[in-house]
Amino acid sequence: MIVDAETLAPRPLAEALLREGDQIEDEREHGAAAWSNELAAHVIEVKTNGPAPRLEGVAALFEAQARAMNARLAPHGARLLGGALHPFFDPATATLWPHGQRAIYEAYDRIFGCRGHGWTNLQSQHLNLPFADDAELARLHAALRLMVPLVPGLAAASPFVDGRRSAHLDTRLEVYRHNQARVPKIAGRVVPEPVASRAAYEATILAPMYAAIAPLDPAGLLQEEWLNSRGVIARFDRMALELRVLDAQETPRADLAIAAAIVAVVRDLVEGRLGAPYPEAGSTERLAATLERAIRDGERAMIDDAALLRSFGLRRERATLGQLWRHLVDRCPPSGEHEAALGALLEAGPLARRMVAWVEARGAEAGGRAPIRAALRELAAEMAACLEEGRLLEAP
Fold first, then answer.
1. Domain boundaries, given as residue ranges, for the chain
2. If I label 203, which of 4, 108, 340, 360 is the partner at 20 to 30 A Cα–Cα?
3. Looking at residue 279, what DSSP letter applies?
4. Where does residue 208 rank: exposed (0-12), middle (13-18), buried (19+ CB within 10 A)?
5. Do residues 199 and 205 make contact, with C-beta atoms less than 8 angstroms apart?
6. CA 286 to mean position of chain CA atoms
7. Residues 232-245: pLDDT tens digits?
8. 70-102 burial, b for 16+ CB within 10 Å, e for fewer?
9. Integer Cα distance of 150 and 172 in angstroms
10. How far, CA to CA in Å, does 172 sit from each of 82, 148, 183, 277?
C-alpha cells in the first residue's frame, strides 16, 4: 500500500510505479518479479514473474522490490506500508485504478460498491500450488480446505479499522466474508465445498456462481473463474489452486515464513503422512465455524473439532490454534531459511497480536490518555520501517 511518508495516509500513486515514459501498464516486469495493480490506485502488487519452483529466496526478492519501490516513491513524499488493513483509512475516499481493465473494476463497483474495507482497504498474500490432473486436484483441494480455518492463527494482521480496535484480529477476513453478500454464491462460506474433479468443481462451484451473477452482469464481464472468492479457488488457466486467506504481513520475511509453513503441512496432508481423513459430511459448516472463531481470536481460538485435530495428527479433544500450529511446525518443519521468522511468530503471536500490544503500550506510557489515532500513526510508521528494513514488528 502506498502511503504519505509523513501522515501515513494512503495516496493513489501506483501510476508512479507502473509508468515508463508516457506508458502506464497494469503490470510491469522487473527481472524475477513483476509489479501490478488491481482496483485501488494506492495499492501495488508484487509477485514472482512466473511460477517459483521453491520458496527459498523469494523473501529476499520481494524485500529488494520493496526497497526499489520506496526509492521511486521517495521523490513523491511517499513510501510503502505492509499489513492487511490500513488502521485509519476511510475507503470511501479511495481512487479506483483508471487504466487497463477498468471496465471490470467499474462492474464490480456498480454491483458491490468497491469503496469499502475489503475492497480498497486490504492487502493479502496469494499462494498458488499446482496440480496436474483430477487426482492431484482432489487431494490438494481437500488439504487446502482443512488449512483455511488454521491460517489466521499465524497470519491474522488486521486488528484495527476506522481508527479503532476491531472485535476481530483478522478484520480483513471478516469483511471479506461479507463484502459480496449481494451474491452469496461468490464466496460461499469462504471454506470451499468438497470436490473431487474439475467437472465436479465447475458444476458445484462455478456454474451456480455464474448463474447468480448473470442478472447483475449482462455483459458477462465477471463470469470468469477469478470471480470466485472462496478461501481457496481453482485457477484452471494455470492449473493451480490459490489460497487467498493470508493477511499480508509487515515484511516479506514473515509472509514467506507463513507460506512455507503452510506448504510443508499441505505436502504432508496430500501424501497422507499426518493423520486420519477428515469426515466429509457436514465438513464445510464445521470448518467455517472454526474459521469464524479464528478470525475473531487468532492463535487463541479454541478448536473443539476433534476430527479436525486428528486429521493433523493431534490426538486431543480440544486445542487452541496456537497449540495446533506448534504441533504442526514440529511435525512438518519448513526449510531453515524460514525457521527464525516462524519461531518468532509462534513465540510472540501473529502480527495482529503484536500490533495490539504495541498500541496498548503506547497508551500505558501516556497514562492511558494517548489518543488511539496518534498511536496508530506511530504504529503505521513503525510497520513501514519494518518493510523497508526487512524485520518483524516486535511487541513491547
1. 89-389
2. 108
3. P
4. middle
5. no
6. 22
7. 999 999 999 999 99
8. beebeeeebbbbbbbbbbbbbbeebebbeebee
9. 15
10. 13, 14, 19, 30
